[in-house]
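User: Quick one: structure for sequence A, then sequence B.

Assistant: Sequence A:
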Amino acid sequence: MYDVIIVGRSFAGILTALTLKKHLPQLNICMIDQAAANTVICDQRATALSPSSIILLNELNIWQDLAPLSAPIYEIHIGMTPIKLAPLVFKQDHQILGYNILNHHLRSLLNQNLNHINIDAHTGSAIKDIQLHTSFATVTLDNNTQIQARLVIGADGRTSGVRRLLSTTRTIDHHQTAFTGTIHHTTPHNNRAFEFFIPQGPLAFIPLEDLNTSTFVWSLKNQLLPITSLEDTLSKLMHPHLGNIQCTQPVQQYPLKTFTASPRAGHRWVLVGDAANAIHPVAGQGLNLAIRDIQNLAHHLSQQHLLGLDIGSLTHLSQYGRARQIDRYSLLSITHIAAQWLPAPHKTLSLFLEKGMKYLNRSTIFSDFLVNTAQFGVPTLSK
C-alpha cells in the first residue's frame, strides 16, 4: 500500500514527486507512466518560467543547474502589429520578469533529479481502471497489475486517463493550430519577448540564451492553413524587431484546445497541471499554473499529514480545489479572450485596442498588477 500514486511522468508529475518528497520525505510514492522508461521524447518547444516557479525550483535545488541554460526576460512588448513599436511594454527597472528554457534541457534535469529520490515506478503500461474505496484507491493497469494507495494524483497531461475515469471534461476548440520552434534572427533580441495579436492569430517570440536565437509560437487560425514559406513570412512580420529569420529546428504543430476538469479533486484523487486544466499558450503560463497547483497541494497534504489526518479525504482535497479556482479560472478567461478576441480582423477595432494599450502603458499601477499576476498568479485567501 502506497501513500501516493502519481500518474504521469510529465513536468507536473515529476515536480509533484520532488516537492512531496521535499516536504514529506517519509511518504511512500509510486509513479505510473504509460511510456517505457527509455522512451526518447523529441520536443523542440520551450517553457517560460515565472519568478514564483523559480522559487520552487530553488527549494528543490534544481535552479542552479537550470539557470545557465535559461534566458532572462527583461521586457515584454505587446501590440497589434509588428510593423510598429509595441504600444504596451512591461518592464520593471531591469528586474527579470521570467526565464525561457528549452524543454529538452528542463526534461533532462528533472529526470536526473527524479532518479535521485526514493520512489517506485511502473512504466510501459497505461491505467485501465480506478476504484475508489473508503480508505484507499486501487489503480488497475492495462497489464492487469493492481496498485493501491491512499491518494491518486493525476498528472498525465491533456489526454489524462485519470480525468477520463474520475471527472468530466469541458473542451473549447480554438480552431487554431500552434506552430512552434527555434529560430535564428539577424537582429539581437536583447532579452525582449514579443507578443503580437495579428488577424491571423497571436504570434509570440521569446528569447533564448543566445542573443540571436529565440523560440516562437504562432497560434494560426485553421482557415488559413496550410501555410507556405514560413521563414519568409516571419521575417517580413518581425523584420523591424528581429531582422531576417531562419528556423534552426523542424517546426512542430499541434491543434489548440482548452480543457478544464470539473471537479478537479474528489475522494482519494486530485488532478494537477494539464490534467486539471490545459490553457491556450498565448500567455506562456501553462507550467507556471501547474507549479502553483503543486505548491498549494503540497501545502495541503503537509498540513494533513502533520496533524495525523487522512491525506486522501474528500474534505481537505475539496478545500485544495476551491483554493485554486480563482487563479485557474482567471487565467483560463484571460487566455481565452486574448486568443479569440484580440486578433481583431477589423481595422477600427484594431486601432481602438491599440489606443487602449497605449493608455494602459502609461499606468504603472496597471502594468505592475499584470506583471505581478503573471509572476505569482491571482492572489487567493488560501495558499
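Sequence B:
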Amino acid sequence: MGSFKQPGRVFGPMDLEVIDQVYKAVWAQVEALEPYRDRESDSERQDAIRKRIFAFAGCGPIDFDTLCDKVIATIPQSWTPTPKPRRSSAKATTRRTIVTG
C-alpha cells in the first residue's frame, strides 16, 4: 500500500490503514441505519464518505475515534430515515348490543 498525497499532507501506510478502518466503520453504520435504501446510490454515498474522511484527516493527527466521530457527525439527514410512528396492532373495537323487546 502506498501513500496518498493531499495538498499539503502525505499519508503514510499507518495513516491509510486507520483511514480504511474509519471508512469501513462509517459505511457499516450507514448501511445499518438504512437497510432498505436505494442501493443504486451507494457509490455516490461511498465517494462522499471518502471525501469527508480525507478532508478531516488532513486537519491534524489521524486518530480512529476522532476521525470516525467527525465523519459520522456530518452524514446528511437525508441518508438516515426518520423513524415512522408505529401503528398499534390492537384496534379499538366497540360492540353494541341491541336489545329488542
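The chain has one domain: 4-79. The CA atoms of residues 19 and 54 lie 8 Å apart.

User: Thanks, that's what I needed.
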